[in-house]
Q: What sequence folds into this?
């Protein structure tokens, strides 16, 4: 299974936030949408494009809380976001995506084509896809043995 297939099933909508927003804004978005990360993007209305700047995750917020006494409302996203993005292509297999996530100790993997964000895969999405594949293989094996 490829990431393209996962995105086709789950949808390719990606929640984003701008770098000048606050961490309080991030928390509210994460809770509202029941997600664990937001892509940080700057939109260029003139060109109709968005520039991917980074990602802000629950883990980034916890790190900032642990090392700062400032309230979340006073910390801008660009101060706490992860900038060194690990990204995948839609043609990557689930196994390749899981390897990237494991090696880089990340739980969210942006899917990018030619610098354009086309989706995001979470570790939960990858595990779900693997479980579905294993269940299907198990069913085929049982059918084969019994048949």
A:
């Amino acid at each position: 299974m490829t990431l393209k297939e996962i995105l086709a099933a789950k949808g390719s909508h990606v929640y984003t936030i701008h770098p000048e927003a606050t961490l309080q804004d991030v928390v509210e978005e994460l809770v509202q949408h029941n997600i664990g990360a937001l892509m940080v993007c700057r939109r260029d209305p003139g060109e109709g494009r968005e520039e991917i700047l980074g990602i802000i995750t629950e883990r980034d917020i916890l790190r900032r809380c642990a090392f700062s006494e400032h309230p979340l409302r006073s910390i801008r996203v660009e101060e706490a976001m992860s900038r060194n993005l690990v990204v995948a292509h839609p043609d990557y297999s689930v196994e390749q995506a899981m390897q990237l996530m494991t090696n880089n100790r990340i739980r969210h993997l942006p899917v990018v084509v030619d610098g354009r964000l086309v989706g995001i895969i979470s570790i939960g999405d990858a595990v779900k896809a693997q479980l579905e594949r294993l269940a299907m293989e198990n069913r085929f094996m049982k059918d084969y043995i019994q048949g």
